[in-house]
Amino acid sequence: MNDLIDLRGRNALVTGASRGVGKAVALQLARAGASVGIAYRSRRDEAEAVAEEVRGHGVAAWTAAGDLSRREAADALFARAAREFDGLDIFVGNHGIWPTADTPVAEISDERWHETMAADLHSVFYTCRSAARVLRADGRLVLIGSTAGQRGEAYHADYAAAKGAMGSFVKSFCVELAPRGITVNCVAPGWVDTEMSATAFRNGGRERIAASIPIGRIATAEDVAGPVVFLCSELGRHVTGEILNVNGGAVLAG
């Protein structure tokens, strides 16, 4: 355990935690001493495996499935967290989708637009509304955004729009929760070496993307999890309403 980041006695809920960044966040929170609820949409076996790894750090863990683009599912998840933990200290909202097909705005279907907004924006509202009702004083709320929300992403305008809205939401929401000592922030990764990005990495894509990043490499899930855990700790207690870029300088390039 890192003595600088001690989350013993704190209870966390991480969504999209069966793989990738969510899994890395859950495990780093557990290593710092927090008990963790593992929320996922459909990958039950993988979520249970993450929960086992979390328990291996001597803390409690549980899993819950649900489609968080539905209000009822979000409300049920936070009700479960309140029961399991007798209160919640940390919420990390990592769920969402990135439609893999490069599609210009003129050709984005109604169905794709609404699916992206439901998964990446409506779900943020539903989960954060529920979190506001459950989080204890001095809690931490961190949403996982994207570089696309700041610089845009051609042929993925639906995704960029949802992540851009997330940034404005964070800046609004943090003021509302500040009187309770709750911080609200967004960690915005660029390209991360996870399953979600696998399509873009094919046929030389990995090399092209790495070359476009000033620091010269694609982030690991752990690279993103570290800043999240910092914001969840006492070290980050005076940081709120911020978008923390974790992209190797990609926003500054070209």
Describe the structure.
The protein is α/β, with parallel strands linked by helices. 43% of the residues lie in helices and 17% in strands. The chain is built from eight helices and seven strands. The chain has a seven-stranded parallel sheet, sandwiched between helices. The mean pLDDT is 91.
List keywords for this structure.
alpha/beta, 8 helices, 7 strands, seven-stranded parallel sheet, 254 residues, globular
Task: Give a quick rundown of the structure.
With 254 residues, this protein is α/β, with parallel strands linked by helices. The protein contains eight helices and seven strands. A seven-stranded parallel sheet has the order 3-2-1-4-5-6-7, sandwiched between helices.
Low-confidence stretches: none
Q: What's the alpha carbon Rg, rounded to whole Å? A: 17 Å
Let me know the average pLDDT: 91
Q: Biggest sheet: strands side by side, in what order?
A: 3-2-1-4-5-6-7
Shape summary: globular
Structural class: alpha/beta
Query: Total number of β-strand segments?
Result: 7
Biggest sheet character: 7 strands, parallel
Count, helices: 8
Question: H/E element string?
Answer: EHEHEHEHEHHEHHE
Helix content: 40-55%
